[in-house]
């Protein structure tokens, strides 16, 4: 694993911190363009880190190709179909999900019954925020 491919990176602040606190780690970011056009009061994308956008005209399950040497990463996702859509195409072997078990879509434990992926770590660092690290079996 040479780095992370972040799905729904929002402002990219977390990804920027990761990239700038680990020498040589590749961090790529993606975000759905409708986040910009839906009237959201948030500012998606920033000058901190380059973000590639998926067009809303490509449909709700559209993805950006992910290099297999990068871990698939999602932090507090809010689109239940997005991570599964990326998993259909993903050829790599590590998936990292951060969020709450209730309220994050999908939650960090959504792959717990998938035989193709084994749990490497499932943790509760603080404040009901969970993380899971899964590796392809």
Would you mind describing this structure in some detail?
The protein has 137 residues and is of the alpha/beta class. Helix content is 15%, strand content 34%. The chain is built from 3 helices and 7 strands; from the N terminus they run βαβαββαβββ. The protein has a 7-stranded mixed sheet, sandwiched between helices. β6 and β7 form a beta hairpin. The longest helix is centred in the first third of the chain and has 8 residues. The protein is globular. The relative contact order is 0.17.
Strand order of the largest sheet: 3-2-1-4-5-7-6
Overall form: globular
| Share in β-strands | 25-35%
- Model regions low in confidence, pLDDT < 50 over at least 5 residues: none
Number of helical elements = 3
Give Rg in angstroms: 14 Å
H and E string: EHEHEEHEEE
Q: Mean of the pLDDT scores?
A: 82
Number of strands: 7
Distance between the termini: 15 Å
Helix content: 10-25%
By secondary-structure content and strand pairing, the structural class works out as: alpha/beta
Write the layout of secondary structure elements.
Layout: E1 3-7, H1 13-20, E2 26-32, H2 34-37, E3 51-54, E4 70-75, H3 82-89, E5 94-99, E6 117-126, E7 129-136
Parallel strand pairs: 1-2, 1-4, 2-3, 4-5
Antiparallel strand pairs: 5-7, 6-7
What structural keywords apply?
15% helix, alpha/beta, 34% strand, 7 strands, single chain, seven-stranded mixed beta sheet, 137 residues
